[in-house]
Amino acid sequence: MLANIKVIAFDADDTLWVNEPYYRETEYKFAELLSEYISEKECIDKLFKVEMQNLKLYGYGAKGFVLSMIETAFQISDYKISGKSIEQIINFGKELNNKIIDILPGVKDLLSKLKNTDYKIITATKGDLLDQERKLKKSGLAPFFHHIEVMSNKKEDDYLKLLKRCDVKPENFLMIGNSLMSDILPVLKIGSNAVFVPFHTTWIHEEADENEFVKYDNYYKIKNPAEILNIINLSKK
Q1: Where are the domains of the chain?
Q2: What is 20-97's CATH topology?
Q3: Cα 98 to Cα 17, 92, 93, distances in angstroms
């Protein structure tokens, strides 16, 4: 049990609401669009490679994803792809941004129980600022949070800066998320606490070997959000 937590931070995408499946769906549409040039697997692999090359330029989010799709389409087609197809790729991105926000089971109930406690509840999510603000607004979850932090990355230094802004010590901070690479490992390395909530689909860039994390005493893994109440010993309060 954790008795010294003051700030509880939630990742957003695939922790509060569904996100990655929509990107996977878009990848398959993109691969179908380019099927005359390359196989589905080769197309998706090529897209991922371009995305990784572009992360430092575009960061995370739908806009960078669309730009990477366009660049990949040019490369795969040897610049023969039509303007109409490029327009279709742009529309893929618009569809992605207009997806209904599907809140994950148990999330709203958990946030409702945490709202009237002494904990400071924040969102610490990675991605494009406008994209994440839009999703948070559409979700209706914004009133549950004291602070919204949209991070360009989630490395150890990024979390240390977040802790400084929240005026909280590492041992008093708890991060909850679905990404071992972004939400869990860097948090554990700075001496904070982390709860891993697996999601059935994870971007390959965020995957990691879970065996690396079990050595940490401040690492927890749960199956559903309600279990967090047990971890912070709130279920009996």
Answers
A1: 7-18+101-231, 20-97
A2: DNA polymerase; domain 1 (1.10.150)
A3: 14, 10, 9
